[in-house]
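User: Here's a structure from my thesis project, written as structure tokens. My advisor, Dr. K., wants to see whether a designed sequence matches the one we expressed. Can you design one independently, without my sequence as a hint?
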């Protein structure tokens, strides 16, 4: 059994993990990046569409171009990384060091690290998690599976397609199928508004005349060996199917794009505090979890709509790791609780130390126009022309604004109010 020691181990070789490893190395930390797949890169490897890097690189890149630039930076700096490395467990030893038991190509390795950055991404929700009934015929895929088949292996999964869910990946896959001359029969969305960015609604659906069925739900998938049809119904304001509104859509393929959930199995087993709203760990402004010295970034922290936010979080988590290491293992602080106010579904971070500026990411519960995003305790007000659940709100709160709420048990509220 091999043993190794590092200042920081980054778990996950997607955009957030690569960014964290680069930044940690730049900050002088002895860094190891581990990835369980055969190569670094994560989901952008299978994304042939543009929309990546507009903020981070100031260019509109494909997923492959974006991740290639990050990997080039990583390798040019000589950061150590291991692929095909599976982390079995994460624990905290008596002296505060983090222990990671890993299976690698060379055998079992026990790595000890002063700090860990957790960036394992998210997983897709399946057909059965969203209450769709019926048989189990061939031809049912998650959006990520369909994307991998098409953009990595060159395989067209089907020719007559129904997509469940109008999140960004589902919208992009609708366009991808249309470009390959498949017939996209409909994108079915249970909510009364699209689940993806408006630019994707326009570019992926309207430009290709693909129907978007809002306030509709797929009740059943039917077929013997292969998918033959889906049964769809309209839903009421409580998202319940309206009796008598059912109709059928013939198809041979169903693609499920019903959202993502942070992949945090290791953190949960280690006992980290989880925020039910995000499905990820509760963190402070340096993205430190409830386990001192363990930080989270990217979609394992909160599902992002832009990859640029994921790499930004990787940078921030690396800076948190340096603060933790340089302090000799002192937690970076969780004195003030962040509370979700009016029309705020989730917000990150969930805690503040009050010692430094905080970068916030938030999502609303429902669309509104002509509103104000505010933190009343800090006197922060940011006018918004409009807010939508699929679009992340990002803002910075200066530390000096928190001086009046620094006591233990203090709180700040993030809310969206009418102007």
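Assistant: Designed independently from the structure alone:
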């Amino acid at each position: 059994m091999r043993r190794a020691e590092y200042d920081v181990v980054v778990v996950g070789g997607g955009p957030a993990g690569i960014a964290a490893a680069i930044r940690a190395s730049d900050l002088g930390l002895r860094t190891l990046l581990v990835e369980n797949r055969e190569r670094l890169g994560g989901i952008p490897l299978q994304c042939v569409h543009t929309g990546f890097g507009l903020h981070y690189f100031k260019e509109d890149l494909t997923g492959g171009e974006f991740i290639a630039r990050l990997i080039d930076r990583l390798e040019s700096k000589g950061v150590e990384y291991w692929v095909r490395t599976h982390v079995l467990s994460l624990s905290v030893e008596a002296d505060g060091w983090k222990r990671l038991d890993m299976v690698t190509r060379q055998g079992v390795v026990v790595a000890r690290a002063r700090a860990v950055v957790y960036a394992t991404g998210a997983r897709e929700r399946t057909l059965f998690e969203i209450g769709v009934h019926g048989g189990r015929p061939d031809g049912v895929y998650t959006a990520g599976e369909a994307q991998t088949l098409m953009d990595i292996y060159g395989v067209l999964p089907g020719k007559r397609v129904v997509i469940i869910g109008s999140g960004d990946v589902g919208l992009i896959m609708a366009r991808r199928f249309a470009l390959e001359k498949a017939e996209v029969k409909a994108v079915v969305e249970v909510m009364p508004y699209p689940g993806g960015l408006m630019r994707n609604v326009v570019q992926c659906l309207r430009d290709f005349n693909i129907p978007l069925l809002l306030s509709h739900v797929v009740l059943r998938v039917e077929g013997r060996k292969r998918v033959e049809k889906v049964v769809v119904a309209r839903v009421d304001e409580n998202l319940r199917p309206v009796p008598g509104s059912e109709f059928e859509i013939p198809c041979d393929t169903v693609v499920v794009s019903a959202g993502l959930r942070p992949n945090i199995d290791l953190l949960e087993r280690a006992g980290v505090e989880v925020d039910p709203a995000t499905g990820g760990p509760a963190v402070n402004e340096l993205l430190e979890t409830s386990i001192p010295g363990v930080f989270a970034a990217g979609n394992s922290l909160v599902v992002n709509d832009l990859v640029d936010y994921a790499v930004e979080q990787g940078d921030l988590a690396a800076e948190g790791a340096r603060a933790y290491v340089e302090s000799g293992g002192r937690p970076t602080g969780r004195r003030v609780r962040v509370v979700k106010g009016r029309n705020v579904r989730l917000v990150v971070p969930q805690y503040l130390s009050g010692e430094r500026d905080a970068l916030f990411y938030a999502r609303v519960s429902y669309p509104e126009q002509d509103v104000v995003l505010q933190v009343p305790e800090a006197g922060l007000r940011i006018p918004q022309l409009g807010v939508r659940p699929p679009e992340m709100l990002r803002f910075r709160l200066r530390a000096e604004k928190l001086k009046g709420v620094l006591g233990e048990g203090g709180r700040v509220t993030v809310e969206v109010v009418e102007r």
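When you compare it with your expressed construct, this may help: The chain is about 20% helix and 30% strand.
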